[in-house]
Every structure is written in C-alpha cells, then in structure tokens.
Amino acid sequence: MNSNCQSLAEKSVSQPVCIVGLGLIGGSLLRRLTAAGYPAFGWNRSASTVQQAAADGMDVSGDLSATLQRAARENALIVMAVPLFALRDIVSQIAAHAPQCPLTDVVSVKVEVLRIVQEAGLAATYVGSHPMAGTENSGWGATDPALFENATWVVMTGGADDVTARVRDIAVAAGSVVVETDPVSHDGAVACISHVPHLVAEALSVAAVTESVGGGDTALRLSAGSFRDGTRVAGSAPALVRAMCEGNRDAVLPVLAETIGLLQQSYRELSTEGTCETLVEAGYAAHQRYRTVMNELGR
C-alpha cells in the first residue's frame, strides 16, 4: 500500500488529476484537462477504451492499482467517474492504495456516494461533485472536451476547504459554472430534472411502439421533433439509467408519483370533460419559469 500523498495545502495550478473511469464524462474531462495543460492521467477497465484513449494522446492505463499508487505519489485529485454500481469496488481500491488523496466524483447521485465513501473511511478528503452535462451516448468514442462548456457543475458543501478548492478548479478549467449545494438537495433536484425525465422518456418510447394504442412502424416514420426531443435520453445505456434512478430511489419515488398523478388527473379530465386544459396550462407556465431562469443564467 502506498499512501504518501503530499499535504493537500500544497496547491498549484498544475496539480495532477487522476480520472478513474473514461466513459462519456470521465473521458471528456480527461480530454479537456489535458488540453488545458493539466498533468492529467486516467484508468479504465476496458482494454479497448485504454487503447483508443492512448491513440488520442491521453496518459492512460488499464492497471488500477498502479494508477492509484501513482495518484498517491503525485498527490493527484482522484475523480471517480464510474457508474454507481461500480463505485464501491473503486472506493475500496482507493482506500487501499491512495487513502490520503483528495477525492471527488462525477456520479449523478450524491447521498449514496457519500455513504459509500464514509463507510470506507475516506470522508475527510472527499468533496462530491456532479457536472450537469451529458448526452445519450457513452464510451470513449462519445467523449468531447467541450462537453462541460457553460454547464453547471455542482459541488457539495461541507467538505474540506482545500479539497473543495481543487474540485472547483477542475470544474472551472472544464468551462463550467460552479454551484454549491448539499447532497440531499442535489438528489431531490436531479430526480426532478434528470432521473424522472429518463423514466418518462422510456415510457414514451414504449408507447410509441405499442401497436394496440396506435404505435408501431407507421408512428415512428411520422415522428418528428417533439418525439425526438422527448425521448432522446431513452437512448442512454439501460445500466446507467437504472444505476442513477435506483441509486436515487428515495428522491425519485415522490417525483415519479407527482408526475403520474398529474397525468392521471389529465386522463380523468380528458375522458370525462373532454379537456386537458389544467395540465397544459400548468405545464406552459412551468416551462416559462424554466425559460426565465435560463435567460437569467445567460443560456
């Protein structure tokens, strides 16, 4: 075991970053930080991903123990960029090889990640984070160094100041706008604007191919912008969608119940009164509020 991390207080603009997991988010971050001149390096379990990343000039390895030992020697900020279902094993390896290194993650849930980190005894050097960016695609081939440009990067409050500073630093270097919140508030928010929308997109996709209600190939051939936009995230890898929704179950369930309730109310009104006015008007007003907030943010 090698845990010879330097003091976290020894800060410099060129401090190393170790990214564990080189999918869409982790790979895009490695590309961006490397382009920005950071001494950034990474690991991925897939040999093909390592080969692709190396061919693109990235400093990568398929040896997790060696990568974490290097992170310990160089006092690298370790960024965990693996799905929630793989996180516990990664945290265990970090505890064994680099327990004193500053630590963050880019997983889309925060309460469960914090629990895993606490159980491993790494909470003192951990500050959770979540870049609000992504696409329905995955893997090294989907990576994009501009992915985080003008995106919100959420950083959790309550962590050590020096670790927080390093997490904020990579977020800014990635081109993002940093917003701070706590894990519970974060998980409630992403249930509303990310996790349940994924489930709704799945449901719309299934309905569109259900022939008993008019779906099928003809419906798909007629589809245009509203269907494409409303179902885009249904193209995400099912394992990743399940990981974030199931990992955020406590926050997802009430939002899902609210969404179902609104649709059921609209169903009753449309079937008994011939109108869907209540939901449509409320939805329009809510979307206007969303547009106002985006305008205030310059997006």
TrEMBL record:
InterPro entries: 6-PGluconate_DH-like_C_sf (IPR008927), NAD(P)-bd_dom_sf (IPR036291), PDH_C (IPR046825), PDH_N (IPR046826), Preph/Arog_dehydrog (IPR050812), Prephen_DH (IPR003099)
UniProt entry tagged with the keyword Oxidoreductase: yes
BP-aspect Gene Ontology terms: tyrosine biosynthetic process
Gene Ontology molecular function terms on file: NAD+ binding; prephenate dehydrogenase (NAD+) activity; prephenate dehydrogenase (NADP+) activity
Span of domain Prephenate/arogenate dehydrogenase: 15-299
Keywords: Oxidoreductase
A Pfam family matched in the record: PDH_N
Name of the protein this chain belongs to: Prephenate dehydrogenase
Organismal lineage: Bacteria, Bacillati, Actinomycetota, Actinomycetes, Mycobacteriales
